[in-house]
Amino acid sequence: MKNIVIFGAPGSGKGTQSDKIVEKYGFKHISTGDVLRGEIKNGTELGKTAKGYIDNGQLIPDSLMIDILASVYDSFGAVEGVIFDGFPRTIPQAEALKQMLAERGTEVSVMLNLDVPEAELMDRLIKRGQISGRADDNEETIKKRLVVYQEQTSPLIEWYQNEGKHTHIQGSGELEKIFADICEAIDKV
After folding, report:
1. pLDDT tens column, 45-84
2. 140 CB contacts (<8 Å, ≥6 apart)?
3. Which residues are catalytic?
4. Which CATH architecture has domain 2-181?
């Protein structure tokens, strides 16, 4: 089984590319953002707690996220692969994911790092907010999210490089070229 971590700043195209990977390879997709938005929409206790963090541009506590991921992951049964989208976001989360997968006799196959310039990220997220109505896609919250990404999340690039799992993907340009680069990286593992 292939376990793919799709990585990049908010607005880098993780969801779009994940959909294309699912379509081509038949992998399952765990989007922590979608899982959390579902909990918020349903008004669950987790959703209420998560909303407080998200509305302030902060990350969800690690223990909460790993429990959610393990439950979703285990629900898939035998599959060709799983895409982790939006997790891990910190080194402790990466270590927790590594441990969770090891307990299941598997590991991260590759970390795909979608690299997009910050100005383009801002444009994409503001447009997405106008189209989707997502409350967290406004300029003030986007700026906070990008700061959190730079401070807390970008160190994962070096962590996965040290693990021998990192693959840089140029996330700007033609959608099909980006996807071709992703497929090449997946096919190598």
Report:
1. 877 888 888 788 777 788 878 877 888 899 899 899 999 9
2. none
3. 14, 89, 128, 134, 145
4. 3-Layer(aba) Sandwich (3.40)
